[in-house]
Amino acid sequence: MEIQEIKKQLYHLEKELLTPQMRENSSKLNEVLAADFFEFGSSGTIWSKKDLVEGGLSVLEMTLSDFAIHPLAEDVILATYRVHDKTRNQKTLRSSIWRKNGDQWQLFFHQGTLAK
């Protein structure tokens, strides 16, 4: 698969993860998050897949910018971008590691870091 097509797919998934439709839907989260998913949140909290699927994600108004991908291995991609959380008036740097599982990309790791 061409790198630009992968970038488009992952951008769509990252953007979708910011929406209430995804953040409040445990079955969708269960599909997108890898079984061994974990996150280092911008709050300093470490989250697991179980935490997010069972507890859901907070719903905030967020916009994504400066999206880029960096191949790490065949079927493993690092995505980096910025998020502006309009609800809390906060900006964060984000990084995600996506792994291909069959025909589907799944989020393995995510980190949010507060930015100035």
Brief digest:
With 116 residues, this protein is an alpha+beta fold. The protein is built from 4 helices and 6 strands, in the order αααββαββββ.
How would you describe this structure to a colleague?
It is a single chain. With about 120 residues, the protein is α+β, with helices and mostly antiparallel strands. It is built from four helices and six strands; from the N terminus they run H-H-H-E-E-H-E-E-E-E. It has helices at about 5-15, 20-25, 25-30, 50-55; strands at about 35-40, 45-50, 60-75, 75-85, 90-100, 105-115. Strands 2-1-6-5-4-3 form a six-stranded mixed beta sheet. A hairpin with a 4-residue loop joins strand 4 (about 75-85) and strand 5 (about 90-100). It is globular and about 40 Å long. The N and C termini lie far apart (about 35 Å). The mean pLDDT is about 95.
- Low-pLDDT runs of 5+ residues are none
- So how many helices? 4
**Order of strands across the main sheet:** 2-1-6-5-4-3
Sketch the major β-sheet. 6 strands, mixed
User: What share of the residues does DSSP label as strand, in percent?
Assistant: over 45%
Judged by helices, strands and strand pairing, the structural class is alpha+beta
Give the oligomer, counting copies of the same chain as homo and different chains as hetero: single chain
Round the Cα radius of gyration to an integer and report it. Answer: 13 Å
**Distance between termini?**
36 Å
Shape: globular
In helices, the fraction of residues equals 25-40%
> Order of SSEs, N→C?
HHHEEHEEEE
Number of E-state strands: 6
Mean pLDDT metric: 93
